[in-house]
């Protein structure tokens, strides 16, 4: 969730002001790479077998700290790639702000710093007449080589390029020489709405077209994706749908609700009602900007109620589930769970969750399917809230704890991959780096 989620809550959310203290970030040592051992004579080896055993064990990376839950079919192959020592230290949330999951969630939404990034916006018209906004870092189309790895970012529900967690990821990836584009879904991040249809957890058409578009523009680049919250749910469902045919070289899912039925149950309990109200207000605000597109829609649509929905569930019942052909809102939720897609994922996937996430419940994580899939790794931190993770070198106002972890994962995948010449043949005749006819660009 981003600060936009709470903009309409007002007095419902307690006022929090950041204390004025400076926290010096802890030093982070890098794991020493394995080096070849000096030659051991036969007599030495025979006389002291434990010496050889200890030498071999010293080459292995230390196990993850017990404060973290780390599981997955790809655990043995992926764990050694992390250069950061964060996984081998106890997860230590920043004092005061992380004592409560709601405090951490709200603090991160309101007070996390917003890095300044200049974007170049591209409006992509989809095959059904809809539009999405792709925000590229301004100037990268001339500064970076065409074969630079390309990272697509998918924000959470109602989120976009303006969100702090998105901006921090943009800055980190750019510092590593990656090309980054933020995928603002229909109506989000001031993306235009040109048809009477928004986006949803079930709809993968826009994701497929965005991946195809950026892949055709940079033929020599490996494509990766990172998704947060609902964006993570869409990303994992896309990976499962594409399965062996997926063109992405790797992906990261953060704060994924996974099971939307379970998430919906928890979303209507206790303090979570505050998030529900904030999100429904944000959805209604987007809807009212484009209300004329929805005039005179018949059938099961209930436009007046959707325009003033008091909960996300009510908005989805009156508009979303009807737009995408579901019989009921429960039918929509049960058929849009990314937990059902994990078993079909054939792309390297890192999932990071917080055990105390109020919006993406831990019990909804498909742990058994993740364990059975040799392409998946799951890391669960004991705290973090929803899109909080106020811990690590950036705490309390900087980048979340997850950023260096996921960047290590992506860089390892990039170092081990090279784009085959066959990729270019699939889109022969298209000029790399050219701008597709009918697209519009603006600096924002």
UniProtKB/TrEMBL annotation:
Renumbered to this chain, the Polar residues biased-composition regions fall at 45-58
Bias (Low complexity) occurs at 14-44
The UniProt annotation puts the region (Disordered) at: 1-67, 416-444
On the tree of life, the source organism's domain of life is Eukaryota
Q: Name one GO molecular function term.
A: short-chain carboxylesterase activity
Q: Where is the composition biased (Basic and acidic residues)?
A: 428-444
The chain's coiled-coil residues are none
Where is the AB hydrolase-1 domain positioned along the sequence? 149-387
Cross-referenced InterPro entries: AB_hydrolase_1, AB_hydrolase_4_sf, AB_hydrolase_fold
Annotated family: Belongs to the AB hydrolase superfamily. AB hydrolase 4 family.
The protein's name: OLC1v1028907C1
């Amino acid at each position: 969730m981003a600060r936009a989620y709470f903009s309409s809550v007002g007095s419902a959310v307690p006022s929090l002001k950041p204390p004025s203290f400076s926290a010096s970030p802890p030093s982070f040592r890098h794991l020493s790479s394995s080096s070849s051992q000096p030659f051991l004579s036969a007599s030495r080896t025979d006389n002291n077998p434990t010496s050889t055993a200890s030498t071999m064990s010293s080459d292995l990376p230390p196990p993850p700290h017990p404060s973290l839950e780390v599981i997955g079919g790809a655990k043995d192959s992926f764990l050694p790639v992390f250069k950061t020592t964060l996984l081998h230290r106890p997860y230590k949330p920043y004092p005061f702000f992380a004592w409560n999951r709601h405090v951490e969630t709200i603090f991160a939404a309101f007070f996390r710093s917003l890095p300044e990034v200049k974007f170049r916006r591209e409006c992509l018209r989809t095959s059904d007449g809809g539009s999405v906004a792709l925000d590229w870092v301004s100037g990268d189309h001339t500064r970076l080589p065409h074969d630079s790895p390309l990272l697509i970012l998918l924000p959470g529900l109602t989120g976009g390029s303006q969100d702090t967690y998105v901006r921090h990821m943009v800055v980190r990836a750019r510092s590593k020489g990656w090309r980054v584009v933020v995928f603002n879904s229909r109506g989000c991040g001031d993306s235009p709405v040109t048809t009477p249809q928004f986006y949803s957890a079930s709809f993968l058409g826009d994701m497929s077209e965005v991946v195809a578009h950026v892949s055709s523009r940079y033929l020599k680049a490996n494509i990766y994706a990172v998704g947060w919250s609902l964006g993570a749910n869409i990303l994992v469902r896309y990976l499962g749908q594409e399965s062996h045919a997926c063109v992405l070289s790797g992906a990261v899912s953060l704060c994924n609700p996974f099971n939307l039925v379970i998430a919906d149950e928890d979303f209507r309990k206790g303090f979570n009602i505050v998030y529900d109200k904030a999100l429904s207000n944000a959805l209604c605000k987007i809807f009212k900007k484009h209300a004329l597109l929805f005039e005179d829609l018949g059938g099961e649509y209930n436009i007046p109620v959707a325009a003033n929905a008091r909960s996300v569930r009510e908005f989805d019942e009156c508009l979303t589930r009807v737009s995408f052909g579901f019989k009921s809102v429960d039918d929509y939720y049960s058929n849009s769970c990314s937990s059902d897609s994990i078993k079909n994922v054939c792309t390297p996937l890192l999932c990071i969750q917080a055990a105390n996430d109020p919006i993406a419940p831990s019990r909804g994580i498909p742990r058994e399917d993740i364990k059975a899939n040799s392409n998946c790794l799951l890391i669960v931190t004991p705290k973090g809230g929803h899109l909080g993770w106020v811990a690590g070198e950036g705490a309390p106002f900087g980048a979340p704890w997850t950023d260096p972890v996921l960047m290590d994962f992506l860089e390892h995948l990039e170092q081990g991959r090279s784009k085959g010449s066959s990729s270019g043949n699939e889109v022969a005749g298209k000029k790399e780096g050219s701008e597709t006819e009918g697209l519009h660009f603006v600096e924002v």
